[in-house]
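Sample pair:
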Amino acid sequence: MDIYKSTNQEKKAGLVSLVLCIFFFFIVFVTQVIISTKIIFNSFNIHSIFLGCLSQLQLLISVMLVIKGGNKGYKLEVILNSLSIFASIILTVSFDFTCAIQIFISSMLIFMSCILLYHHMNTIQSTADAMYKKAITDDLTGLVNHKNFVLNIDDIIKQASNDTAFSIVFIDIDNFKRINDTLGHQVGDNFLIETVRNMLKVISPGDTLGRMGGDEFALLVPGNQNDTDLYRYVHRISEVVAVPFLCQNKEYNVTASFGIARFPKDGRTASDVIHQADMAMYRAKSLGKNKILFFDDQMQNALEKRMQLENALQKALGKNEMYLEYQPQYSVSDKSVRGYEALIRWNSSQLGIVSPSNFIGVAEETGTMISIGEWVIKTACEDFGKIKANENRVNNTKTIIAINISTVQLNDPGFIDFVENILKNTGMEASCLEFEVTERICELPQDTIIKVLSEIRRLGIRISLDDFGTGSSSLNNLRKLPLNSLKIDTSFTRSLIAAPRDGSLIKPLIEMAHDLKLQVIAEGVEKVEELELLKSYGCDFAQGFLFGHSGPINKL
């Protein structure tokens, strides 16, 4: 690979240089022969002076051949100087020995000098090629890098005609950070290498796949394909990305989100088209990931709102905009208070009241969930003192506080230490604390999640599996996880009356949980009829508007 791409004009100029060098070399060579045969210049001193000058000129021409001609020039230099050496040997026999030997020695020196020069230039070229390759390719995957990918698109646009069209597909691996955090960066790198290898199996030869950084890739698809064909093509790529990744005899399933933008429909510059494809991909992730979306104008507004939400969320804790409300849980059998679930609320000075369903996912994706989750645990444990004081005034029962814990928090190496310090600093009784986790924990490596949950149980904290029945947990997982209770999702509770056939699933769920020595909490209980059915099914606890809405600590 040459350092610079040669144009046609540069190639013609190089050829002219080679021809001129050969011509002048022969002129010098013939002159040397004439002088050596003493056809002219009988004086020995004049002979030596002219031969020395001609040797210098011969060296200069040979060097120019090597420098200008590269490999071809080097071969020509070897041939020409070999002829010069051979001629000097003949002259030694036929004519003046002194002059001929002078030509022989100078030709040999020139010959050796050019060999050294050529090999030195090769070393420099090899280093330059390696540096150039490093500058335009990604070290890990060998794909073109971000800079070179953009330059390729710029070149296409600069040479574009009226019928030029292409598509950019932005690809982002979903939850790749989880692989890095749980399995290590080396495994993460191996995963990316294998993913690229799989993608290249289905990517057309004329298309260009580049790595934009981290777990983001971009695909350049020349031509004006219709939406259906392009979607099918990208869907094949999504299928190979989803091929299970094998590590330490365990399979890990990963998906990807795809955003597609077209030239010239969605943008007239490389940066515009890439930006729109990135925006479509970002939208695909925000809608639940593992999706393929084409760019449209509405995405710009959605992205602006998302960015506004992210910026406001980062400042929410510092501006004291977050607060907790508590919803009571009651015993189904005697309607006594079991405890309270802490529910986070956000009243943004910029956006107003923001639902947890709108900002929790954003907090998990942007990394702010760790600080928000720590604030929730700390605040709930501090509030427990007030609940305990009220509890002692009213009755002697021992209530609990349930706190929702994100998988992001469970995956944080410092989570257990943080919880231990909170218990110590606030005086919170571990037995009065319950962590609610969702079925998304089953997406994490099983040995990792069992270890973390076991550490939580070691502290004396209860663990409840929230929204049971809506995720990916299995009976086998339930047997292995160190749980205390299950929370049946609201959708099941509502089906008790609205869709009795579906509601009948609750009874075997409760029986199964009891067989596993787990207590059962039903969410979303709003009607007396629902409560009576739950009671007949043996449900232990209930939570919902029938017993009360969530409220601040001073209203409990």
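Residues 1-7, 38-52 have pLDDT under 50 and may be disordered.
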